[in-house]
């Protein structure tokens, strides 16, 4: 067994990258999963330059077999997964009279289904004390009708996280979603770095104080 390992699913230049940097600063080895090979190499090289042991693999999050295989490979290669962070969601501007059922299901596959796939792939490598983290949103409670699939994704994500937490808790593994009650912005209380800090802090919460949903209001 090596150092602690954080696997970040759906890494982009916002919250996902900030979470990778935050866990890297805390001494975790970091494994990155996203669709863009170019961005993964850019971020991975940056983290390696900062002394963070980093690996990455490009995967389409909607491809469940490929996602599960990638997470399983990280678990086998690194020997453990201490933190699994799930970040993806789909923004599709369409109200309920415009949204096609197939598009809704496609969005839910990415925004929710990928978490299920990733946890199932990670579970054999997760030891007591491991954590599952998900980036939630106030859209779960206050959906914008003109992008209604996002609210469906975030409400379902929160629900799934609660079921995961209840299922994993007997083995000392906990799951939580951070409900971001604001709009992400480059600076200020909803900057990606601040959200990443909140996710990191939540991951360090003791068993006695664990909550499957943590609100973040900046």
Overview in brief:
This is Short-chain dehydrogenase. By secondary structure, the chain is an alpha/beta fold.
What is the CATH superfamily classification? NAD(P)-binding Rossmann-like Domain
Spatial shape: globular
What is the string of SSEs from the N terminus onward?
Answer: EHEHEHEHEHEHE
Task: Indicate the proportion of strand residues.
Answer: 15-25%
List the SSEs and their pairings.
Layout: E1 5-9, H1 15-25, E2 29-34, H2 37-49, E3 54-58, H3 64-78, E4 83-86, H4 101-122, E5 131-137, H5 148-168, E6 174-180, H6 192-203, E7 213-216
Parallel strand pairs: 1-2, 1-4, 2-3, 4-5, 5-6, 6-7
Care to describe what's here?
This protein has 218 residues and is α/β, with parallel strands linked by helices. The protein is globular. Helices cover 43% and strands 17% of the residues. The chain has a seven-stranded parallel β-sheet with strand order 3-2-1-4-5-6-7, sandwiched between helices. It has one domain: Rossmann fold (3-Layer(aba) Sandwich). The model has no long low-confidence stretch (mean pLDDT 96). The protein is built from six helices and seven strands; from the N terminus they run βαβαβαβαβαβαβ. Pfam families: adh_short (PF00106). It comes from Intrasporangium chromatireducens Q5-1. This is Short-chain dehydrogenase.
């Amino acid at each position: 067994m090596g150092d602690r390992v954080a696997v970040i699913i759906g890494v982009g230049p916002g919250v996902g990258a900030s979470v990778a940097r935050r866990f890297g600063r805390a001494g975790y080895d970091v494994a990155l999963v996203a669709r863009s090979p170019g961005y993964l190499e850019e971020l991975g090289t940056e983290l390696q330059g900062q002394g963070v042991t980093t690996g990455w693999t490009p995967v389409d999050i909607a491809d469940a077999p490929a996602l599960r295989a990638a997470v399983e490979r990280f678990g086998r290669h690194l020997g453990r997964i201490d933190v699994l962070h799930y970040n993806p969601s789909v923004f599709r501007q369409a109200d309920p009279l415009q949204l096609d059922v197939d598009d809704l299901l496609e969005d839910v596959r990415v925004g929710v289904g990928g978490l299920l796939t990733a946890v199932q792939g990670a579970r054999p490598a997760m030891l007591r004390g491991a954590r599952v983290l998900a980036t939630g949103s106030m859209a779960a409670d206050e959906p914008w009708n003109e992008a209604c699939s996002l609210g469906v994704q975030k409400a379902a994500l929160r629900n799934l996280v609660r079921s995961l937490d209840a299922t994993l808790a007997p083995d000392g593994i906990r799951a939580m979603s951070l409900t971001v009650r604001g709009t992400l912005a480059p600076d200020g209380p909803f900057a990606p770095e601040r959200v990443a800090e909140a996710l990191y802090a939540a991951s360090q919460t003791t068993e006695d104080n664990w909550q499957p949903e943590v609100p973040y209001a900046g």
